[in-house]
Amino acid sequence: MGALWWLKNYGDWSVFVANRVNEINRLVPSPFWRHVPGELNPADLLSRGSSRLFSDSLWWEGPSLLLEPPSNWPIDRLACETSEVEREKKEINHSFYLVDVAVCEKREEKAGISRDWKFDSSRDRTRGENSHKNCSS
Question: What counts of helices (H) and strands (E) characterise the chain?
Fold first, then answer.
C-alpha cells in the first residue's frame, strides 16, 4: 500500500521517488489507482503457496469485482488512512519527551540512579514517558 500512498499524495519525496511518481501519474492519473484488499489481490496468491496458484481463477481472471461498476467496489481505505497519518504527524511533539527525560535524569542523578535513555521508536518514547511518570512520584 506504500506505493499507492505515494501515487495519491504529494509529499517531500526523494528525487528518485518524485520522478517515478510524476511519470506514473502522467501516464495514469491518481484517481484511477485503487487499493485491492489482500483476499482479492492476485499478487497475494504467491504468498499463500504456489500449489493454489495454478488452480485459482483469481490468478487467471482477476477479482470478480472488476466486472462490476466501480460504485460496488470496496471503499478505498487509503483515503481514510491518509488523513489519519497527517493528523498523527501533527500530534507528535518530540521536544516534550526530551525535556521530560532531562528532568527525570536530573532527579535520578541526585538520587544516585543511572539509566541509559535511548529513543529510537514510538515504543521507546512510550517506555520513556512511562518511566518519567514513575520517577516523578
Answer: 7, 0
* Tens-digit pLDDT profile for residues 77-97: 665 555 555 555 555 444 444
Q: Which of 61, 28, 55 is nearest to 42 (CA)?
A: 61
Half-sphere exposure of 10 (CA within 13 A, CB side): 3
Which string of DSSP letters, residue by residue, matches 42-64?
Answer: GGGGGGG-HHHHTT-HHHHH--G
- Which positions ≥6 away from 38 have C-beta within 8 Å? 44
Rounded to whole angstroms, how far apart are CA atoms 18 and 30? 14
Q: Which residues in the chain come in under a pLDDT of 50?
A: 92-99, 117, 119, 137
pTM for the model stands at 0.44
